[in-house]
Specification:
With 97 residues, the protein is an all-alpha fold. Helix content is 34%, strand content 0%.
Length: 97
């Protein structure tokens, strides 16, 4: 039986690709930028290269990466009270923002 040279020399073979769940990807991405954390810091913390972080972010921006398979509806309460109003940052057609 002929074994690969790496086995003869006692070297570790290439590690298989890890599979990250959607929830793990979103959790890791949420750390990026939180409290000033850079992509490199987050990648080192989770023992992953930068490439998956950028890939996951790109997928999230393209709405391919979501926490659930199906959209979730949330309850909304409409109020005329100005104290609870959310300020409007910009309007459609307004190029100033």
């Amino acid at each position: 039986m002929i074994l690969p040279l790496a086995v003869h020399l006692g070297l570790a073979c290439a590690e298989r690709r890890r599979r990250w769940s959607r929830e793990d990807q979103l959790r890791i991405l949420s750390e990026w930028g939180a409290e000033g954390a850079s992509a490199s810091e987050v990648a080192r913390r989770h023992d992953v290269t930068l490439q998956p972080l950028y890939q996951w972010r790109r997928e999230l921006r393209r709405s391919r990466l979501t926490a659930t398979e199906h959209p979730t509806l949330v309850p909304v309460q409409v109020s005329n009270d100005p104290a609870t109003a959310i300020p409007v940052v910009g309007r459609l057609g307004d190029r100033s923002f």
